[in-house]
Amino acid sequence: MTAIAEGAQQTLLLAQWQLRRQAQFLPLMVVVQVFMAVATVVGYGLLVGDPDPVVALYLATGAPTVTLITIGLVMVPQMVGQSRIEGSLDWMRTLPVPRVGFLLSDLLVWTLIALPGMALGIVAGILRFDVDLSVAPWFAPATVLVSLTAAAVGYAMATLLPPQLAMLLTQALVFIVMLFSPVSYPSERMPAWLQSAHEWLPIEPMAQLMRAGLAQDVFAMPARSLVVLLAWAVAALVGAALALRRRA
What we know:
Blueprint: H1 3-21, H2 26-48, H3 53-86, H4 88-92, H5 99-129, H6 139-160, H7 163-179, H8 192-198, H9 203-214, H10 223-246
């Protein structure tokens, strides 16, 4: 067996072990993120009433995006931070497996957890805003990239920052993602300085990728945004991997 095949097998076994380890919490996690997806659609619907077709598309595609991003940037840091506080993360890192495999297995688990809420968010958006989506053939890998990037950023934040600070930061990120990020509305509505900030942050590129994947006839994914998103994904993975090694 080659080193790559062996590493992949270890990663999948670790992911399976992590799923079994969290089996009692998984149903609650899925319920929470499903509720978040539906609540986002219903809540925005109450605010805007009967929107025009373009606004409706922003809202319908924004709900599943919010779900993916908040799982990665909020739930992942909270769970990893709690594991660090109670010591279970340190114990798991003593297992005789590569640190990269341990990191990838965790990210795979969180990506899988995020997908049900994302799917229900799409359905809820279609039903509430009566939109016709034009799904791109590359939407599935795009969804995985967004979920993986969000989870990687959240994981890096939880491993590089003190646990209490990381968990406190997640409370602010909830409001930033839902209210002060161009996910469910165009960036032109924000002040110029905030638009400039989001050009370098990963949230807007995630929203653009999901939006273009769900409504390719209306929206497009700028090449620059894709580069920014990939750069954040690589930086987060490297940062988390280095933190896991340094704190062994």
